[in-house]
Amino acid sequence: MIYFSEILHKSIYTDQNSYLGRLKDLIFVVKDRPYITKMVVGREKEVVYPLSSLKSINGKLIVSSDVQSTHLDENELYISKNLLDQQIIDLAENKVVRVNDVILQNKPEWYLSGIDISFYGILRWFGLEKSIVSIMKLISLAPVPEVLSWVDIQPLELARGRIKLKLEQERLKKLRPEDLADYLELTNTESIKKILNTMDQQSAAMVIKNLNINYQTELFNIFSSEKAASVVSLIEPDDAADILFTLDKQKRLEILSFLSIEDRLELEQLLNFAHTPIGEHITTEFFTAFPNDTIKEVMREIKNKTSNFEHLNYVYVLNQNKQLVGVCNMHELLLNDEDTPLYKFMITNLVAINLTTPEEIAISKMLKYKLYGLPVIDREKHLLGMITLDSITGFLLEHFS
């Protein structure tokens, strides 16, 4: 076994003592057993030679005098360009680590056996490993070797040289969707698609929901309309509307056609709202009840109908004409007796906005009255949706930072 750092930049001669240059890189084929196939030699320019021409290593590399140049083939990678110093996701530890050195086996055949992610790997490049480690051992601070075997690594993005650990479905579930989305945004759309295909539909949808809008748009354009619709059905309507709004009209209509009538109507409404000041912040994820409903009845309906909600802070009370007449928060529901009807304690002096209310006014009302959310109503006081501090955070950061 040898380390890549131990041979990189070594001089290379033919067996007739002709100087070819210095070792600049090694090339390996991407397989379960990643054999080293070629070496990159640099002098005035870089030349690729087959590793089969290598005869010995003894302070310098000796190759056959009849060595002929070659080229990089498909499914081959450079160690230095594509692995060294690249970040990988350690799913077992839920952290990002860096490749500090590469471990090579050279008997009986050359192949890449793993990577060194420890402090040793850094010291080795400066020729300080033995001396520094000896000193650290004296004060009981010796670093622990950390090595990842090649079987735990999967090259995902050859062009940009980023690598990740193999993403097994059970291990993926240990990562929060927003964390995994952040990691995947370091790759490209094709890589993200491969990872999503290893996950169950619900988990994949949650990751897509947390991706940057540009990646969401690219994925939806790649997906069939039916597959895109399945994702839409698993995420919050306002998040789905944000994605659909970026697509061309034909693609959007095709996706909507695969949804249930209820989901389609809700999304069409949100897409129409998007042309108003408040529209892009509105969510239709809210719960309504009637004045005569008891707390017991309301709590039963909440359990049955809101399992997919991200938050539920308020119950909006509607009359028989579906007009907004009151509101109560979850704290009030818990404090009152379960047989108490809502009209006895609901707040009737409502703070509400409409679709044309400027964002600044909406935020001002939320801060003034210390509200997490505001109902959005039309001229007839019909409830259209609500906005929350979460949904308007982007506007806050942009205008009040």
From TrEMBL:
Assigned GO CC terms: membrane
SMART domains: CBS (SM00116), MgtE_N (SM00924)
Molecular function per GO: magnesium ion transmembrane transporter activity
Superkingdom as given in the UniProt entry: Bacteria
Every CBS domain range: 282-345, 346-401
TM annotation in the entry: none
Keywords noted in UniProt: CBS domain
SUPFAM superfamilies (UniProt xref): CBS-domain pair, MgtE N-terminal domain-like
Entry-linked Pfam families: CBS (PF00571), MgtE_N (PF03448)
InterPro entries in alphabetical order: CBS_dom (IPR000644), CBS_dom_sf (IPR046342), Mg_transptr_MgtE_intracell_dom (IPR006668), MgtE_N_sf (IPR038076), MgtE_transporter (IPR006669)
Name assigned to this protein: CBS domain-containing protein
Originating organism: Candidatus Roizmanbacteria bacterium RIFCSPLOWO2_01_FULL_38_12
